[in-house]
Amino acid sequence: MTSARGPRLEFAVGAFLLLALASLLVLAIASTNGQFNFSRGGSYDLTARFTNLGQLRPNAPVKVGGVTIGRVTDIDLDPVKFDSIVTLSIEDRFNEIPIDTSASILTGGLLGESYVGLVPGGDMEVLQPGEELVFTSPAVDLIQMVGKYMFGGGGGDAGATQPASPEAGTASPDAPHSDEGVTP
Predict the structure, then answer these.
(1) Which residues of the chain have pLDDT under 70?
(2) pLDDT score for 155
(3) DSSP bridge pairs for 133
(4) pLDDT recorded at residue 35
(5) Contact at 8 Å (CB) between 133 and 46?
(6) 102: which of 58, 60, 135, 149 fits an S-S bond (Cβ 3.0–4.6 Å)?
(7) Dihedral (C-alpha) 44, 132, 117, 124: value to the nearest 10 degrees?
(8) Where are the annotated segments for Disordered (predicted)?
(9) Do residues 110 and 21 make contact, with C-beta atoms less than 8 angstroms apart?
(10) R_g over Cα of the chain
(11) Closest CA to 116 of 143, 93, 135, 95
């Protein structure tokens, strides 16, 4: 005996499974930033030293002018200088990066992902695989900057008060005092 609920229930279960598989696919694509490393060309490594990484993570993009040219492959700590050493894997087709290129840790948007931004220099000599980018700028900690500004560390003289204007009905502290019009 088959009831009328059988085909409907089977359809609902099938639809639920398809929805679950689609969700897993979206999660897989989002967790890899859409990069599955199916690139046709090779890559070479460069390193850079930073004093502060912020939220930079492995697999973060390396960009020049907003165009992704590579990925962060490794982050390590120098046990002597206590600098962070970041290994950048750059696509082979971008093999003419000038030796005086600077690297900065930037954030896409206010709360976006961190990435390494490269600004090419003008030197004719190019970086070779395994070389280190010498000119670097650390990540900017927005929370720390806002805290300093809000609590008196960065907005000028936070303790000073502005004198009230004479139009507001009060005299300026620098104005001469007069006893005219005051009754004892």
Answers:
(1) 1-5, 31-41, 110-111, 153-184
(2) 52
(3) 48
(4) 58
(5) yes
(6) 135
(7) -90
(8) 155-184
(9) no
(10) 30
(11) 135
Which residue, 45, 54, 46, 68, is CA-closest to 117?
68
In the numeric block, the tokens 């694509």 are attached to 29
If phi over 0 gives left and psi between -120 and 50 gives alpha, with beta otherwise, what is residue 173? alpha
pLDDT of residue 70: 94
Q: How far apart are CA 106 and CA 86, in angstroms?
A: 14
Tokens of 118: 């490269």
Cβ(132)–Cβ(99) under 8 Å? no
Q: Between the CA atoms of 122, 128, 129 and 133, what dihedral angle is there, to the nearest 10 degrees?
A: -40
Cα 38–chain centre separation: 26
Total count of residues recorded for the chain: 184
Sequence letter at residue 154 = G
pLDDT at position 31? 66
Output 118-126 pairs: Cβ under 8 A, ≥24 positions apart.
118/62, 118/63, 118/64, 118/69, 119/64, 120/64, 122/98, 123/98, 123/99, 124/98, 125/98, 125/99, 126/95, 126/96, 126/97, 126/98, 126/99
Contacts of 64 (CB under 8 A, 6+ apart): 94, 117, 118, 119, 120
* 56-85 pLDDT per residue, tens: 999 999 999 989 999 999 999 999 999 999
